[in-house]
Write a structure and sequence with these properties.
The protein has 181 residues and is mainly beta. The chain contains one helix and 13 strands, in the order βββαββββββββββ. It starts with 17 loop residues before the first strand and ends in a 6-residue tail after the last strand. The N terminus is likely disordered.
Length: 181
C-alpha cells in the first residue's frame, strides 16, 4: 500500500481517511471509521477515579518517563493504554485491538513515594493494574492516590484532593494481544 502526498489518506483507497501510526518500526493504518474518539477524562471524586482506573487498566509505561514537578505540584505519567472502550475488529482469523498513547496527570501532589519501581532503568516496563484513593479521614479531601502495577510495584502520590486527568495524545495503533486477567 502506497501512501499518498496528503497525510492521513492512502492512495488507492478512494480517499478513505486513515490514521497512520509508527510503532516499533512498524507502520499500521487504522481506518478512521474504526477509531473511537480519543479520551479526555477527569476525576474529582472516588466514583470518577473508578472510571479513569478502568480505562487506564493494563496500560504499559516506562517508569523512567514519570515526572514529578514539586514546584508545580504535578505528577505526569506517560503510558500506552489498552483501549478497552474500542470495538475489536477482525483481520483474517485474528481479532485486532487498539492501544493509545496517553498521559495521566495528577494535580495538587505534595509528595511521591514508590515501591518496586526502578526509575533509573531506561528499559524497564511496568503494567498498570489500578488507580485507587485512600483518604486521610472519612470526610477529608486529602489522601493518597495509589497506582498499583503488576509484580507488586506501586506509586503513592500524596494529594490535597482528587484531581486527575487521563488524556489520549494521538491516534490508536493495532495490537493483536489483549490483556488477560
Amino acid at each position: 500500500m502506497k501512501a499518498s502526498s496528503r497525510p492521513g489518506i492512502l492512495a488507492g483507497q478512494g480517499g478513505t481517511p486513515y490514521s497512520r501510526t509508527t510503532f516499533d518500526t512498524r507502520t499500521v493504518f487504522i481506518p478512521m471509521a474504526e477509531m473511537d474518539t480519543p479520551l479526555k477524562l477527569m476525576a474529582l471524586d472516588g466514583e470518577d477515579l473508578t472510571v479513569v482506573s478502568a480505562h487506564a487498566q493494563d496500560a504499559v509505561l516506562k517508569p523512567a518517563t514519570i515526572v514529578f514537578d514539586k514546584a508545580a505540584k504535578t505528577l505526569v505519567v506517560p503510558m500506552n493504554r489498552f483501549a478497552w472502550e474500542a470495538k475489536a475488529s477482525r483481520r483474517l482469523f485474528f481479532k485486532r485491538h487498539q492501544r493509545r498513547s496517553s498521559v495521566l496527570r495528577l494535580a495538587g501532589v505534595q509528595s511521591v513515594r514508590s515501591r518496586g519501581i526502578n526509575r533509573s532503568d531506561e528499559d524497564a516496563v511496568a503494567s498498570l493494574l489500578s488507580i485507587t484513593f485512600e483518604p486521610d479521614g472519612a470526610e477529608s479531601p486529602e489522601g493518597t492516590i495509589r497506582l498499583t502495577f503488576s509484580g507488586g510495584a506501586r506509586l503513592d502520590a500524596r494529594v490535597d484532593c482528587i484531581e486527575l486527568q487521563l488524556t489520549d495524545l494521538g491516534a490508536a495503533w493495532e495490537t493483536s494481544a489483549k490483556p488477560r486477567h
